[in-house]
Amino acid sequence: MVIFSVDVVNKAGGLIYQYDNYVPRAEAEKTFSYPLDLVLKHHDEKVIVSFGQRDGIKVGHAVLSINGADVMGKSTADGKDILEYLKDPSNYPVSIRFGRARLSSNEKLMLASMFHS
């Protein structure tokens, strides 16, 4: 039996401790040419796929890295907005890695509060 997460919630419903045994299961990396055939959008400080599943890339997957450099929220490693970077044809061909993003601290709080009666 595997334990995926440990949440300690106090009587008032506040999250005291949270441990996530997170192992990314499904990640897909693909090299794209211009124009990008997936529709991406900003959602909760991440860039996610909103339309166009293919080759293991599913709706809801987040952009994890571009050309081998990890992304930080909505921006690339050098501080450019991801959507603006991908609109520029001079940046292609581009290799993008997609996968399930980690939960933010706010999402962890909302999830833990669901267990309080």
Automatic annotation (TrEMBL):
GO annotations under biological process?
endoplasmic reticulum to Golgi vesicle-mediated transport
The family database entries (Pfam families) matched by this protein are listed as: Sybindin
Main subcellular location of this protein, as a coarse class: endoplasmic reticulum
Per UniProt, the keywords (alphabetical) are: Endoplasmic reticulum, ER-Golgi transport, Golgi apparatus, Transport
Which compartment or compartments is the protein found in? Endoplasmic reticulum; Golgi apparatus, cis-Golgi network
Q: One Gene Ontology cellular component annotation? A: TRAPP complex
Quaternary assembly: Part of the multisubunit transport protein particle (TRAPP) complex.
Belongs to which family?
Belongs to the TRAPP small subunits family.
> What is the official name of this protein in its record?
Trafficking protein particle complex subunit
